[in-house]
Design brief:
CATH topology of the largest domain: TIM Barrel
Radius of gyration: 22 Å
Largest sheet: 8 strands, parallel, barrel
Distance between the termini: 28 Å
Length: 417
């Protein structure tokens, strides 16, 4: 029997594996409010490489938090953004796999395979009336060829990764997500329908799919773009997924996954509205927001905690190019707006917290500083036990901020009861 992903799930990244209990505390508070969200702990190969951890550590931290908090609901461990080269290290410890094939988009598949795809789905050419869409989808032979040329090889690669996992874990014993968000252009609703057709052809029982939406999903800060356009895209994609599930061999609980979803406050209202209107599910993937709340908690604690937070910022500022390079596509930092280390050295707890905490109503909030610290977790990793011991020394302050951030700014704003 296939493991079923619940309707609402949240990717709860925890880079240093210390905040599972605080994250579950937020989710338990939500359940008391009638908001049922299940956690999916996610940590990518890149993050493991930077922090020098192994995938098994995520499973161990998740299991320990679940036991400590007496969490009796579903939870998962995600092999986040894996490809065929990196998947093997995650197979034993994960039960959720985000198949990242964005790098294969645009690579041409075998001509015979592309021709077969076009012929198989040519019956869809014309206008398709889909419930929930204000206008019919128009599918042409030209579009079929375009999708085959651009996406078919990537979907075949997803199939290759899926079958590798299936070979080791067995059929139905894990959840599959197909990730196509890390590409330059959003997929249109007709393209998404044909991509789903290719996923079904490949025999991938995807329960979530992460398309590319319009706008900027920069790490750790709010959505940048046309909110009305995003809302229209999101609702259209929900309708297309429902239509595809009724006509293709895809799991009936297939739902959208929004990547880099933490702190995207401007679009939470529209997402929540669509979920309430349609009854659709959602996977919201968050990651660095937990690490940033650790730093907020340290700064808020004052004393040695504040000093350590300042040390992390000062080091990150001095290593700007090194830390920002791997994330260049998903950050927009104005270096001139970053406060000098000498200025930050004079700050008290309130000033540092105001600059870092994602509260745009506060005059001191600085999204540039926040983005730099978001990608600066390597500095804390290099501190080793000194950083981890600081988290425990200031546990109350750190946990309070992690829990409040998840519950107040994320869960309550996105997921309907």
């Amino acid at each position: 029997m296939q493991i079923q992903l619940p309707k609402f799930t949240m990717g709860v990244g925890d880079r240093f594996g210390r905040e599972g209990k605080a994250q579950l505390a937020a989710l338990l508070r939500a359940r008391k409010d009638g908001i049922e969200v299940s956690p999916v702990w996610n940590k990518s190969f890149r993050e493991h490489s930077i922090i020098h951890t192994e995938p098994i550590s995520v499973r161990q931290a998740a299991d320990a938090a679940v036991k400590a908090m007496k969490w009796s609901f579903p939870y998962f461990v995600d092999a986040d953004h894996i490809n065929f080269k990196t998947v093997d290290g995650f197979i034993a410890s994960s039960d959720f796999f985000t198949l990242d094939v964005a790098s294969a988009i645009g690579t041409a598949a075998d001509p015979a395979a592309m021709k077969a795809f076009v012929e198989k789905h040519s019956a869809w050419c014309g206008s398709l009336s889909i419930e929930g869409l204000s206008a019919p989808l128009v599918i042409t032979r030209e579009l079929l060829n375009k999708v085959a040329e651009k996406y078919l090889f990537a979907i075949q690669e997803a199939g290759r990764i899926y079958r590798r996992i299936e070979q080791e874990k067995g059929t139905g014993r894990f959840v599959t997500e197909v990730s196509m968000d890390e590409t330059m252009t959003p997929q249109t609703p007709p393209e998404l329908l044909l991509i789903l057709a290719a996923i079904a052809d490949e025999g991938i029982p995807a329960q979530t799919i992460a398309p590319r939406f319009s706008g900027r999903f920069n790490k750790g800060v709010d959505y940048v773009g046309d909110v009305a356009r995003f809302a229209s895209e999101f609702e259209a994609d929900v309708a297309v997924i429902r239509y595809a599930c009724s006509r293709l061999k895809l799991p009936g609980n297939l739902k959208l996954s929004v990547h880099s979803g933490s702190d995207k406050f401007r679009i939470y209202g529209p997402i929540r509205s669509v979920l309430k209107k349609t009854g659709a599910g959602l996977h919201l993937k968050t990651a660095g927001t937990t690490w940033l709340e650790e730093v907020v908690g340290l700064a808020e604690a004052g004393g040695a905690g504040l000093a350590l937070a300042k040390e992390v910022y000062t080091a990150a500022l001095g290593r700007f190019d090194e830390l920002c390079g791997p994330y260049a596509e998903v950050i927009d930092i104005d270096r001139k707006a970053l406060p000098p280390a000498a200025t930050v050295a004079t700050w008290d707890s309130a000033a540092f917290v105001a600059a870092l905490r994602h509260d745009q109503t506060v005059a001191g909030y600085n999204p540039n500083l926040r983005q730099l610290l978001h990608v600066g977790y390597k500095v804390a990793a290099e501190m080793g036990s000194r950083y981890l011991e600081a988290l425990e020394t200031h546990r109350d302050s750190v946990a309070r901020n992690v829990e409040a951030n998840f519950y107040e700014r994320h869960i309550k704003q996105v997921f309907p009861s």
